[in-house]
């Protein structure tokens, strides 16, 4: 089983009122693991992702949904994870990274467009860094009936339901999460990762490998903000909409509107913002 957190010593500082000295206690604390994962296509490293270990095969499959436009599991002939021992590594990644280098080896079916190699390591905060701007017209699924309408009550319930399933976040406080949910409020799959885009790729990969793409009857639920890259992954997965705890960017709203996605954000108890797809929300409480 993948190790997603690591225990370290920290100094906890309690800050009292003005004029009183701070107090310090040495304690153990759980930290999120962040480690590199190399994607190897036909023997060549095409990308190295900084991620939280766990569900790496799904992560690789979901990454290909956007980067290569794969549509079914049959588009990927080989999808195999392996561990590389430190003495086999040549990259100068630092000692901590060298101890935990993993790879997923990939072979695409004939006719499937290979992804462009990334020029450098993709950090946990970056999904499209070092990649060309993607043409979503080639990735979008044929028009399918969208899920909905979805009630205000269900939309309000989804972030809390996601938080309850964030088991590693509860220990570390430093992980993002993504889920696919039905319009009835059932969370179908939940994945956590130090990177927002990685968490989304993991649920997209799960959907691909379980023949659930296009996910036109499902909603993508994310624990943070919605950027352009999150909407782009939603479009490539064919979801009906996105529900987020935080706000989207202006470009994310434009892209969601262009592709007819429901986009709900700034979810708080008793209130939320509907940025696009207002006609797909049942306002009856």
Topology:
Blueprint: E1 5-14, E2 23-32, E3 35-41, E4 44-51, H1 56-67, E5 76-83, H2 95-98, E6 102-108, E7 150-151, H3 152-164, H4 167-172, E8 176-182, E9 187-193, H5 196-209, E10 218-222, H6 228-237, E11 241-244, H7 250-258, E12 262-268, E13 271-276, E14 281-282
Parallel strand pairs: 3-6, 7-14, 10-11, 11-12
Antiparallel strand pairs: 1-2, 3-4, 5-6, 8-9, 8-10, 12-13
Helix pairs in contact: 1-5, 5-6, 6-7
If you had to describe this structure to a student in words, what would you say it looks like?
The protein is flat and about 70 Å long. α5 (196-209) runs parallel beside α6 and α6 (228-237) runs parallel beside α7. A six-stranded mixed β-sheet has the order 9-8-10-11-12-13, with helices on both faces. A four-stranded mixed β-sheet has the order 4-3-6-5, with helices on one face. It is built from seven helices and 14 strands. It has helices at 56-67, 95-98, 152-164, 167-172, 196-209, 228-237, 250-258; strands at residues 5-14, 23-32, 35-41, 44-51, 76-83, 102-108, 150-151, 176-182, 187-193, 218-222, 241-244, 262-268, 271-276, 281-282. It is of the alpha/beta class and 285 residues long. The protein folds into two domains: 35-132, Ubiquitin-like (UB roll); 150-282, Cytidine Deaminase, domain 2 (3-Layer(aba) Sandwich), CATH 3.40.140. It is 24% helix and 32% strand. β10 (218-222), α6 (228-237) and β11 form a beta-alpha-beta unit.
């Amino acid at each position: 089983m993948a190790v997603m957190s690591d225990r370290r010593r920290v100094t906890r500082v309690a800050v009292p009122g003005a004029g009183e000295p701070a107090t310090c206690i040495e304690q153990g604390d759980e930290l999120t693991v962040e480690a590199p994962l190399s994607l190897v296509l036909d023997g060549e490293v095409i990308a190295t992702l900084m991620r939280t270990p766990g569900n790496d095969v799904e992560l690789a499959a979901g990454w290909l949904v956007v980067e290569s436009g794969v549509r079914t599991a049959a588009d990927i002939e080989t999808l195999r994870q392996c561990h590389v021992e430190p003495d086999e590594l040549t990259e100068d990644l630092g000692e901590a990274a060298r101890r935990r280098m993993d790879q997923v080896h990939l072979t695409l079916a004939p006719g499937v467009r290979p992804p462009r190699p990334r020029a450098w390591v993709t950090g946990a905060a970056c999904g499209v860094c070092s990649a060309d701007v993607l043409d979503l017209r080639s990735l979008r699924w044929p028009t399918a009936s969208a899920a909905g309408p979805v009630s205000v009550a269900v939309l309000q319930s989804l972030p809390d339901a996601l938080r309850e399933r964030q088991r590693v976040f509860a220990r570390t406080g430093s992980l993002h999460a993504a889920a696919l949910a039905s319009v009835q409020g059932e969370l179908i799959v939940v994945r956590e990762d130090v990177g927002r885009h990685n968490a989304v790729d993991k649920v997209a990969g799960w959907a691909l490998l379980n023949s659930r793409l296009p996910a036109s009857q499902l909603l993508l639920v994310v624990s943070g903000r919605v950027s352009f890259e999150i909407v782009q992954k939603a479009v490539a997965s064919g979801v009906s909409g996105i529900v987020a705890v935080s706000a989207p960017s202006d470009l994310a709203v434009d892209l969601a509107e262009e592709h007819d996605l429901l986009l709900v954000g700034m979810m708080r108890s008793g209130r939320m913002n509907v940025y696009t797809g207002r006609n797909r929300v049942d306002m009856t409480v």
